[in-house]
Amino acid sequence: MSTKEANLQKESTEGKTSRLLVVCVDRDDDIGSKAGVTTPVVGRNACIDAAQRLALEDPEDADSNSIFAAVKTFEDLVSKGYQAEVAIISGTENKGVQGDEKIVSQVKNIIEKFSANGAVIVSDGEDDESVIPIIQNVLPVVSVKRVVMRVSRSVEYSYAVLGRYLKAIAFDSKYSKFFLGVPGILLLIGGIATVIGMTREIFAVLVSILGGAFLIRAFDVDRAWSHWTKPTPAGFIRIFTLVAGILLILASLTAGLAAVNPEITSAKPDNILKLVMDKKTVGLFVSGMLPFLWMGIGCMFGGSLLSSWFKGSMRSITDILRIIALITLYPIVSQFTTVMTRDESPFTLIPPLIGGLAVILISASLLFHKYRRKKGGEVLSE
User: Is 225 part of a structural domain of the chain?
Assistant: First the structure.
């Protein structure tokens, strides 16, 4: 063998990572919650035992196959001359920062006992592989192996999957409230309507209930309401100001109608449209409802501000700006109603517009600089 070939072989051997840690990642801690196994689990026999316990508890869980794949990878590396070790690490059931911190801590504990200079990650999906950058901060990752299950695509398998989803809809309260609760209410009301002979009237009620349920779920109204009504000072303030604001807004409609010429109440149906389209009538209506309407909206904004202040949230800067914008808009809208009712020049809207814009710009600048200094120059948003 020539000197050049010997040097090349030496460099190849030295560049080869000789101490590898084969890591099976279970980010959602199925092995702990289902099989009761405490991680980290280190060693071939210990990993096989943990995989068998998990497979017995939940034969359909893919994590047990990932563990066996990690053991197989470990044996292949040993047969090729590597110094290797195999281990199982897990996060927490809810994942998140706490689970990732647990994974980092377990990797550090393992490499204190087995001083590896590279890691081989074995997982069963992208969720477990998302912790690779976290592990790389502790130990270089030289290879990633994903375990893909070969499953039956027969009709029986499809029925089994469908049955599992139907079982979740029937017995899991998170899904049954919507998929069973709403149709159940509709069927019950429809049945009662058929018996009492009010099918046509009840149909409108059914459509309204179904539309309301879709809107509530689509815009997460139920979750927002549960968040607002939490038994905390901020939650009580929000619910009180919300109800008070809604009542004031409803009162503004009554005040607006009272401000309109009484002729609208005695007008014939064919004349009502003409009165509604009359700019003076619209101006009087808006002018009458304006004070209560602004108080109602301001009550809601004030409740949000107090809630953010109690929680120490940076959203309070946004709430303050909302209230300032509401105050500056009042003279503009008030002047607009004056233009409509007294036929004044539209140019009278320019001074309150300029004044309101100046107040908002100055307030936003002052609040921004105040919170920036308070947080050490950081630009914060929420």
Answer: no
